[in-house]
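I'm curious: can you give me some protein's one-letter sequence along with its backbone structure tokens because I've never seen that pairing?
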Amino acid sequence: MSRRAVPDRRPVALTVAGSDSGGGAGIQADLKTMEAHGVFGTSAITSVTAQHTRGVESTHVLPVEEVDAQLTAVRGDFDVAAVKTGMLATTPVVERVTTRLGEWEVPSVVDPVMVATSGDRLLEPEAEAAYEALVREATLVTPNADEAEVLTGVAVEDETAMREAGEALVEMGADAALVKGGHVDTEGVIDLLVTEGASHRFESPRVDTAATHGSGCTLSSAIAANLAGGASLVEAVEAGVTFMRRAVRYPLDVGEGPGSVHHLVALRDRAARHATSEAVEGVVDRLVGEEKSRVIVPEVGLNVVGATPYAEETEDVAAVEGRITRTVGGVRPNRGVRFGASSHVARFLLSVREFVPTYRFAANCRYDARVRAALDDLGWRVASFDRGNEPTPEEEASTMGWGAARAFETGDDGDGDEPPVAVVDEGDVGKEPMTRVLAADAETLGDRLLELAAVTGEQ
């Protein structure tokens, strides 16, 4: 007996762009990104490039009739809910795509691909003028600083110029413009969404990496996918920028060049949530099963936290809701494990990961003379920071970031190859002293906590 098929209906998006044989940009990046957003991706290939992470070796542009045939085939069969354009290469292709977008009543994201990240040119100079008509058909145009200058004549060197360029693109006819600030000399990366009469500013920490191959394609595809899923323009852009923060923070180490952004990073991270939560529960069960563990529980309670592999915020960190407290016969968790249940320990772990990205699990333990003696006996590499020297924080998050930086930049970790496995916080007025134990995996964290409890109990 054959099984019954259960179709999965998803929104459809179309990318009109060039192929990247290196897989990091172009059609390949677009389709991966759309799939990561739960959108079925279709494509019309405008050109075939021989490229990799170090540059573009050659380019072959398809006849405009072949590009148009692909557009006709896709539109004739699929209910396309959003379109994005990337590398269009020549004037005839730009003009044909402009005509088709004018005929279709679907949201369109125009990424004016002119030069590759490597510096190789992907659009013939005479085709730049043809983009003016394409911009008029765009729901959103997403130029970087260089592309915005080509399209508007505005030299984009600061946020004021970004706004000016965005307003010029809207005056040209685009519904909105997202001027990307990755190439603009600002402390953080500023992306500015300009619509008629309004603007929205998105700021992200600047990541120290050259592995940004495919970033423009990936962002525009993420926005198009969100539009296809029914998001408003502002919602789609905000979701796309958030998606890109993680994709750039955790790039793919592929090829001999700088590497590529991680198109599936958010999908991979979501897939790891259940295993991360279970791992935290496993550590908690080990503590509950060992009576001696009560000696390392601080007055404020102990928490065990675990970050997903690509964690960016406390909502990506699983923890015990209400922490773990001491009982007469041992310890018990107040409630279960859930994501976002910890602020203090989770933020410390996320801050530590800026220095040791392999650390995914942590716990806050008691710190007193007995624990200090136990740490000496164990011979662990221990770092520390003194809260008496901390700046006045506006929020606890800054305190944890400052403490991690002090411990891992100037602490007692020396110049050895192994990072500290514990960080001692001496406390301050109204702030309990604390030992924070760290590990790359849950089993190691559990081992360290039970070992610390056993040795502390002997003091």
Notes: The chain has 14 helices and 18 strands. The chain has two domains: 12-270, 272-457. The longest helix spans residues 233-249. The CA atoms of residues 6 and 351 lie 44 Å apart.
